[in-house]
Design goal:
heterodimer, A: Rossmann fold, 3-stranded antiparallel sheet, 9 helices, globular, B: mainly alpha, MetI-like fold, 12 helices, flat
Chain lengths: 244, 266
């Protein structure tokens, strides 16, 4: 099943002096149970793609079909420091005014399953960066999305924490059978986590190439160790540095 | 300095520093007062123009034993707190409306800037004429000093809220009111407290200016009256009490701030 279908989408931003074309006829799809990465240099409009999917902005041309319930995970964990972990996790239920026992039990189950239960009454500033990122993912999962939009979710973490959190996020996504669309500028991150990568050009952004990865059930850390990892890395690296 | 080898050493060090700071703080005020007292006793400076701590103290004890001081303190503090409460709540409500309606905020922007730049004491006489010479007039002057800057500050704070938090809320389909009550207000609690800290001083300025213009009571009245009849003891006493009350009010806000910080581990 197709969750997202980007059909010849262009997006321009206007200011007094000029029109900036950010996206130029981009087409791609994201299927069920698939983790797809969008890889591109800074400022190429990766976040614009996410905002388009989220309907926070409208495309200038083309159409976007979204067939799913979205969840959003950010670069920053966006936890609210004045709320306890439990209150942060259940913010989605508060917004949707869902007070049903099932939903609350579901949230508590998730917290138990991913070992943040014991921090329920803590405040975010008492938790480590990695743990906060996990809380932020659980908060998104509480609303039962089937597609997660990940906006460079690891870029604020130090390298060692990043490796741990990547494994963490990957296993949670797979266990919960969620699809994800991740934007990143980190080649290794894209290979370690996704089933498929879409490589973008500089602005005005087009799709340069799509590469499907052939890994089994390997975790991100295991993938990093595999010989295929470096050959994919080279392939992507060369694609990016290719002259047009 | 001694080397720090253990937690108890560290705690001792911190404590030592704290004690040193507190002692120095009291020493400064002590030295100023004793110099002031001695210099006026030795007639090096004119005690008619500068009064002296002992004279102020004697006058203060007279005012306390007659009970007269309390009504002055009461009325001025009441005016200040009324002015502060009305301008803060009004200011925050207006800032919220402007935040929710950016177009209105853009339209009104030059007027806010103008009102803010205007020396408020210039409109105080008009306010006294409109609102009367009693409590209402003086509270009105106080509000004119605090309200505009509260609106401007609060609006700036609201606009500076982390945009990612708002996008996060929107992606969960939160409406404007939910964003307001669950993100904008709570994330600005500390900022609003620091606005209150600034406003306390301003509100006092408003009250004193109001009382200078027309009043029969209050600390501003005491200072004004003392000045007119060249009783500098009275002026100094007024200023002394004023600074103590303003300091206490400020202290209360700092205390609230500390409690909140501790609670949320900020």
């Amino acid at each position: 099943m197709q969750l997202i279908n980007f059909n010849q989408v262009s997006k321009s931003f206007f200011n007094q002096n000029q029109q900036t074309k950010v996206l130029d006829k981009i087409s791609f799809i994201v299927n069920d149970h698939e983790i797809v990465s969008i890889l591109g240099p800074s400022g190429c409009g990766k976040s614009t793609i996410l905002n388009l999917i989220n309907h926070l902005i409208e495309p200038t041309e083309g159409e976007i079909i979204t067939n799913c319930k979205l969840g959003y995970m950010f670069q920053k964990d966006c936890l609210m420091p004045w709320r306890t972990i439990y209150k942060n996790v259940t913010i989605g239920l508060e917004i949707t005014k869902d007070k049903s026992k099932d939903s609350i039990e579901f949230a508590k189950d998730l917290m138990r399953k991913y070992q943040i239960q014991e921090f329920s009454s803590y405040y975010p500033n008492e938790l480590s960066g990695g743990l906060r990122q996990r809380v932020s993912l659980i908060r998104t999962l509480v609303l039962k999305p089937n597609l997660l939009l990940l906006d460079e979710p690891f870029s604020k973490l130090d390298f060692q924490t990043r490796l741990i959190v990547q494994d963490d996020v990957y296993s949670i996504l797979k266990k919960e059978k969620k699809s994800a669309l991740m934007v990143t500028h980190d080649i290794e991150e894209a290979i370690a986590l996704s089933d498929r990568v879409i490589i973008l050009t500089n602005r005005p952004t087009k799709i340069k190439k799509e590469i499907k990865f052939d890994f089994g059930e390997e975790t991100p850390t295991e993938r990093r160790k595999s010989p295929k990892f470096s050959s994919y890395f080279n392939e992507i690296y060369e694609t990016i540095n290719q002259s047009k | 300095m001694k080397k720090i080898n253990s937690i108890s050493d560290y705690k001792k060090q911190i404590k030592k520093e704290k004690i040193m700071i507190t002692i120095s703080q009291f020493a400064i005020i002590g030295i100023i007062f004793s110099l002031w007292e001695l210099l006026t006793r030795w007639n090096i400076i004119n005690s008619f123009l500068l009064s002296s701590p002992s004279k102020v103290f004697i006058l203060l004890s007279q005012y306390i034993s007659s009970g007269e001081i309390f009504s002055h303190v009461y009325i001025s503090t009441l005016e200040t707190i009324l002015g502060l409460t009305i301008s803060l709540s009004g200011g925050i409500v207006i800032a919220t409306l402007l935040y929710l309606c950016p177009i209105a905020s853009k339209i009104l922007d030059p007027y806010l800037v103008l009102l803010n730049a205007l020396p408020k004491s210039a409109i105080a006489p008009i306010l006294i004429i409109w609102l009367g010479t009693g409590l209402k007039g003086i509270v009105g002057v106080s509000i004119s000093f605090v309200m505009v800057i509260t609106i401007i500050n609060t609006l700036t704070y609201f606009k500076n809220v982390d945009n990612d938090l708002i996008i996060m809320m929107k992606s969960m389909k939160a409406n404007k009111l939910q964003i307001l009550f669950k993100v904008i207000f709570p994330s600005n609690l500390m900022n609003i407290l620091s606005t209150i800290k600034v406003s306390i001083g301003l509100s006092w300025v408003g009250v004193i200016v109001g009382e200078y213009l027309s009043s029969r009571q209050g600390l501003g009245y005491l200072v004004m009256y003392g000045g007119q009849v060249f009783k500098l003891d009275l002026v100094m006493m007024g200023i002394f009490i004023l600074s103590i009350i303003a300091f206490l009010m400020y202290g209360v806000v700092v205390l609230i701030e500390k409690i909140l910080k501790k609670r949320y581990q900020l």
